[in-house]
């Protein structure tokens, strides 16, 4: 394994500690960034904001023992946001260091590929796939697995990056130049065309609705200022889990060309 020294603004340890150079989208990057998951101002800050928005699309459980399967759960950032909704939260991920943290937040961990989930057909009332599909080599396989484990009447919720030139520009070329954003975490060749995703879900009996989302501009400015001056206040669901802060809001936007949410019910 090759190592190189990296400086500040790479999303890697700022001390100049040796960091592995890995291919784009290599899951081992999540091991190297393991300490960042639960830092709401860290390299994965935006995942916190997206988890909040995704949780808002998760309905409350309608039966005792309801199960939410969280594909590519990472360190379980969704867990505190859905904790009051009545689900047993099962998380599936390739990366053990992330799963250990998810388990510490009440997620039942399964170390597996989201394209081959060791769970029974129709066991899930909700399947979540937050910021996962743009990381897998064959996203239709993961959609097929999501549909297989989802019971009829169950809900699929997801968010991902669109396969457009604008998305590649903003999410990779621009974002990776910003301070604190990990480099190489995305492979733009894996981004997911929203219309193809809707068609694929329909093939599996899921009528997926899609909308573009983005961080609210003012809330990001307020967060950046708060982070710069260290003045923070609590965000919903996080009051007991860290310092006070102002988390930015993810808001709907007119275009799904970059970042989008999808949600829908499995009809058959
Ligand atoms: C961008 S993170 C999102 C994590 C989490 N869903 C969230 O929003 O906080 C992507 C996650 O997907 C996982 N992942 C990538 N490919 C995967 C695969 N084929 N099967 C399962 N997990 C995968 C990674 O390990 C990582 O934890």
Automatic annotation (TrEMBL):
Gene3D superfamilies: Vaccinia Virus protein VP39. It holds the Pfam family Methyltransf_11. Keywords: Methyltransferase, S-adenosyl-L-methionine, Transferase, Ubiquinone biosynthesis. Residues 1-26 are annotated as: Disordered. It comes from the Bacteria. Residues 69-158 form the Methyltransferase type domain. This is 3-demethylubiquinone-9 3-O-methyltransferase. It comes from Plantactinospora alkalitolerans.
